[in-house]
Specification:
By secondary structure, the protein is α+β, with helices and mostly antiparallel strands. 44% of the residues lie in helices and 33% in strands.
Length: 55
């Protein structure tokens, strides 16, 4: 699995784009996708909390 994110300027603030690449054996895609989705949601919460802090 590899994970990357970008933060780009937007009119209303910024946009965070997550990119996740998975490689799994043929019998595990559903499990891997559900785990990856959970990780993305957790990472989004962490990034939102960090970006919401005053500088």
């Amino acid at each position: 699995m590899s994970y990357r994110f970008t933060i780009d300027h937007h009119e209303a603030g910024c946009v965070v784009t997550d990119t996740l690449h998975l490689r799994t054996p043929p019998d595990l895609p559903r499990f891997a996708a559900s785990q990856a989705g959970a990780v993305q949601q957790a990472r989004a919460r962490v990034l939102t909390a960090r970006l919401a802090r005053p500088a």
